Amino acid sequence: MEMINDEFYMALALDMAERAQGQTGINPVVGCVVVKDGRVVGLGSHLKRGTGHAEVHALNMAGSDAEGSTVYVTLEPCSHYGKTPPCSERLIHEKVKRVVVCCEDPNPQVSGTGISMLRQQGIEVEVGVLRERGRRLNEKFIKFIMTGLPFVTLKTASTLDGKIATRSGDSKWISNEPAREIVHALRHRHQGIMVGVDTVIADNPELTTRLQVEGISPVRIVVDSKLRLPVGSKIVKDGLAPTWVLTTDEASQEAAERLEAYGVEVIRCGPGPRVDLLHGLSKLGEREIGSILLEGGGTLNGAMLEARLVDRLLMFIAPKIVGGYDTPGSFRFEGVERMSQAIQLHQLEIEQVGDNISIGGIPVWPE
Predict the structure, then answer these.
(1) What are the residue numbers of the active site?
(2) Segment 46-97, tens digit of pLDDT
(3) pLDDT tens for residues 234-259?
(4) 23 and 119 part of one domain
(5) Does 82 carry a binding-site annotation?
(6) Are residues 317 and 174 in the same domain?
(7) Which residues lie closer than 8 Å to 76 by C-beta, 6 or more apart?
(8) Domain closes at, from 126, 141, 156
(9) Based on the domain organization, do 71 and 167 belong to the same domain?
(10) 199 is in an annotated binding site
């Protein structure tokens, strides 16, 4: 049986924040719980960028019970005027007694000032309750607000012998249905989905979110140095989600205009012959894409890893062996000479998904 303490109420706030992943844009996901005289009197989550923050929703629910209450919030209350007024001011106005904060806000506009503002007004503040869970939940926001670059999650599915297709190119399906449902949940929780043009030519995918309930489809991003993307492909013609293409300065202007006629946005990223991937991510960040699910083939996956542009890796492994001397694998790049130079995964998360295994973690490159 769970103990009822600060961690108990903070876990509830984090649970609420977690459910809103994917719908707040570049904003963090935040949950808030207001407790008075041993009762939960207010609950709130941040639901959409530009609308009320979690604290506002929870305090509105609490009403007059907010005075003298303890407020549990998963991210430091904001202290600046943005699209909404500062939450720290609202907490002070409501005369709350105590605020328990999961983790500090890395946004330079906040970064400790919200906590200081509360303490200066005599409100007791405790920081760091379930901090690591809170930071993990908002890792996409933290990366974007600190660097201006999107957080990249590389997802791949392979056989036991590391293949992502058979020798004929057949790849449906390597992973099982529960694993594919997880992938669609990941699409819902990322603002962009990235593939290489060869994946589109080979598979003609939709790259949308398909869940048992309604979901949010990400912006479809294709890395295509020569603008070979067929105008007849689904992602060009179906209109189900925006499609953007990262290309080079040397790509044909005529090809660009053909794609633009269908509403595709063409973004030039460097002189060529290959797309400058860091430049591309920077341009996506400028367009307020704060997170990307990379579902590339071996070449794009390898290039992103070589460039050290992957923040988290998730691999599904199916209990199948397909063999083949030239069959494609998950990661294609020059490789290293010594095992000590290998890219390693830290903070491992391993889970059995039916008869598949998922292995996730943070890639760490050797010095």
Answers:
(1) 55
(2) 999 989 899 999 999 999 999 999 999 999 998 877 666 789 999 999 999 9
(3) 999 999 999 999 999 999 999 999 99
(4) yes
(5) no
(6) yes
(7) 101, 103, 104, 105, 110, 112, 114, 115, 127
(8) 141
(9) no
(10) yes
